[in-house]
Amino acid sequence: MKFKVKVLPLRSEKLSVLMNPMDAEDLGLKPGDRVRVLIGKESFVAEVDLAEIVKEGEAGVCSHTAKVCDLREDCLVEIYPISRPNSVEFIRKKLDGARYSRHEIRSIVHDISRNVLNDLEISAFILANEIIGLNEEELQWMIEAMVESGERITFAKGIVADVHSVGGLPSNRFSLIAVPTIASAGLLIPKTASRAITSASGTADTMEVLADVNLSVDEIKEITEKVGGVIAWAKRIAPADDKIIRV
Predict the structure, then answer these.
(1) Exposed/middle/buried for residue 6 (C-beta within 10 Å: 0-12, 13-18, 19+)
(2) How far is 141 from 209, CA to CA, in rounded Å?
(3) What is the pLDDT of residue 198?
(4) Which of 8, 23, 109, 178 has the most CB atoms around its CB within 10 Å?
(5) Which residues form the Glycosyl transferase family domain (predicted)?
C-alpha cells in the first residue's frame, strides 16, 4: 500500500512508522510488528506504532527516521508487512543453552546492523551472551560478522595500530592522549570511538567538543594518511556495534 509521509515533532532513536489503526488493520499489523518501507529503489525496515493523530493514508515518522532514511514531507512510500526474522529463533535457542552456528550469529549481527531486530530482541541477544556465554569459535564468528556488517578501510602502506581502554570509567579519556602519541611515533591509528554508554560522555562525545567525529570512511582514511591518526564515531565502520551499545 502507498502512503504519504508526515514528519512528526517526535523524538525517537529507533526507526519506526506511526500508522492509523484502520490502515494497520487493513494490512494485518499490530504495534511492534515489522514493515518494509520502500521509497524509490531504496528501502528500510521499521517498527509499527499506532495512533489516531495520523490520518488514513498517511505514514508518520519522527525527525530521526526522516533524517536517517531521507524522507521528506508528503513524499510517497510503499509499506509491506514482513515476517519475524529467523535470527529471533536463534537468540531463543541461545537462551535455552544452545551454541550458535556460524550462520546463526552472522544472521543476528547482520539483522541488527540493518535495523531488522528491535530493541527488545537486541536486549535478549545481549542477555543470552551474558548468561550462557560465548566460546572462542562463537566470539571469532561474531567479530567477523561485525566486520562484514560495516565499511572497511585499506591503507596502501604503513603499520596500522589500535588501542582500547577498559571503558566505562568517568573522566577516563585515554584515547585522546594515546592516539596523538601513537601517531607521533609514525604509526597509523584510525581510532573509532563510541558515544556515552555508562558515563555522561563517551570518547566520541568528548572529541566532538574539539572536532567533528561524524566522518565518512573516506574522510577517516584521508585524515589518517595526512596526520597519522584520527578519532571518529564508529557508526559506519561497525553499525551493529553502535546499535548494541545504544541498547
Answers:
(1) middle
(2) 36
(3) 67
(4) 109
(5) 159-245
